[in-house]
Amino acid sequence: MSDWPLSLNLLRFYPKKLASVCVGWAASRHLPKKIQRTLLRHFVRYYKVDLSEAEKPLEEYRSFQEFFTRRLASGLRPQDEMVFGAINCPVDGRLIALGRIQSGMLIQAKGLTYRLEELLKHIPLPERFEGGHFLTLYLSPKDYHRIHVPVEGEVQAISKVEGELWPVNDASANHVHRLYERNRRAVWLAEGRGHDSGLLVACVLIGATHVGGCVLDERWLEGRKLSKDGGLDVSNLSCSPGDDLGLFQFGSTVVMLVGGSKADSWQPVKQQGVVKVGQRLGKL
After folding, report:
1. Containing H/E element for 42?
2. In a 10 Å sphere around its CB, with 0-12 CB exposed, 13-18 middle and 19+ buried, how is residue 208 labelled?
3. Which one of the listed residues 148, 159, 172, 195 is annotated catalytic?
4. Tens digits of per-residue pLDDT, 6-33?
5. Is 175 noted as a catalytic residue in this protein?
6. What is the pLDDT of residues 77-99, one digit of tens each?
7. Quick check: is 28 catalytic?
């Protein structure tokens, strides 16, 4: 830790979980319209949010949380045409890392790795992703915060893992060992069907400081309750690219994994940079 930036060292003493609860509570409050509108306008200007893509006018959002979890205007982000092995982007954000999963390890940043088995805690048979691919997608505060299904298939399992809440910015990724397996997270797992037969896809929603809410869509719970540290089997519910998968209450990171019997033949078609929901990230 001696090589950590001062800001990270100070965060060791910051009550990250308590602060995240407080921020989440404040963000959900309904303030008087004039105050709410003023605060949201400052946020929009500071982060350069593109309001033309929002489903509703700014003044119709009753809280910060409602605005952060806003939907897009109808017709935006059409899904790229499905071809064999097509995996589409689940989020708006930046693709910041990608590579192969080797010996049960993924690359967090140069010189730092983390473990597949721990990342997918409570998910059965994580070794099915061995030799496959990982793609790390970062969402900034200005981005759209909903996550969408990237694959044609059937959902097999979901889980939540209670963990720490370190930031997921560049400084943390470059210094905090095993960042993504240490932080709070939710996991969604689907087996490909149709165009995506032979592929297995997992989306891991990573929490961060002030981003304690990694929320999976109610559909995948099938009327059950998911504990904050546990998993559930899902009854092979069908899913299609663009379906609601979940959302972040504030921005964070999604690690997407591609495994299965055809993973060795799957190839990314997008390298690091800006990505949008529905863009093709790879194919056979």
Report:
1. helix 33-47
2. buried
3. 148
4. 666 666 666 667 767 776 777 788 888 8
5. no
6. 999 999 999 999 999 999 999 99
7. no
